[in-house]
Amino acid sequence: MPYWLRVFSLWFIIMLLQAFNWSRFNLESFMGQLMFITYPFLLVQIFKEKTFRYFSNIVVFFTIISFFLFIPSFISKEIHQIIFSFGKTLGLDVFHPWKTSFLIYTCEPLFTGEILRNASMFSEPGNYACHIGLALSFNLFYYNNLFTKKNLILILGMLTTFSTAGYIILYFIIAYYYFILHKTKDLKTIFLFIIFAFAIVYSFTKLEFMSEKIENYYEREENTDEKVKGRFGAAIKNLQEIKEHPIIGRGLLIQTRFDGEDEWKKGEKPWQNLNSWTNYLVQLGIPGFILFMIWYINSIKKFVEKENKSIKFVFLIFGSIFIGLSSQAILVTPPFLSILYLGYYYKINQSSFHILK
């Protein structure tokens, strides 16, 4: 069976089983799920091995644009208010409650006592940070150099997000670059490691959006009897539900995902499912999720092999994705899901494969 047909069959069969089990079926949701897994497949079919070269360039381009709008806003509250009002006036935003995105830039509100964060063209700063992490990982994969002009732009963009997950992704990528990809045992590297470790500890203890934010979010969301919001609450709720429905899951159709929830009876989602990994566990069930993970990681591995690169890059790419998906529901976006197909759909280099040591 062709690979794409295996992926489509997995989704199709699980959706039917869930619909039959809960006696709930909605053609619009059913077709939406099939389209959702078709978009990333078409992306890879069109752009093949250049898919993430284009993706990285797009993220760099919109990061540069964001600097021209974010930096003046960061310096001056008056300028921020002008840009914020401009976004509202255009009326192009149908997603955010504050209606200030104008396609090339999303202007975040500035709350009292909080720091202004850069979201670039993305839905919010944390989402933007995860996409930067993916672009930065692939840039390292292609060029094996952390300090190219594009990477420096991406790193600066990451710093302006003030995103907890984004900073952790950046720490991971920098540490992986120095201590795994370019592993040396000289005194310079040891000294660098000490400085880097100190910087991580300092940021976690001193920056409010690091350890303090994580602790506050967990305390707020650990009681799943309350309406769940955020990463921890969604993850806890998902893990509870997979115990009840371990085989077929319950979440590929929205009608089965929130069946029985009071808020769902009113047509509203009872919580924000911001943890992609546990969300997919509930959506696909344990057997389907394991198969999905095998295919996902194997696709990265096949892509790395076809590019004649070190197997170490598999862990770099997957590691940055794993961290991001723990805090954001970004697996539902084509860039991240397209990796499921990346290793299978582009012309193979005819030269013999050689994994670099």
Textual characterization of the structure:
It is a single chain. The chain has 357 residues and is mainly alpha-helical. It has one domain. Helices cover 67% and strands 0% of the residues. The protein has 16 helices and no strands. The chain has helices at residues 3-22, 27-47, 51-75, 77-90, 125-143, 149-161, 164-181, 187-206, 208-221, 230-244, 254-257, 262-265, 276-306, 312-325, 334-337, 339-342. Helix 3 packs across helix 4 (77-90) and helix 10 packs across helix 13. The protein is globular.
What key phrases describe this protein's structure?
357 residues; mainly alpha
Number of E-type strands: 0
Q: Whole-number average pLDDT? A: 84
Radius of gyration: 21 Å
Distance between the termini: 33 Å
Order of helices and strands: HHHHHHHHHHHHHHHH
Largest sheet: none
Class by SSE composition: mainly alpha
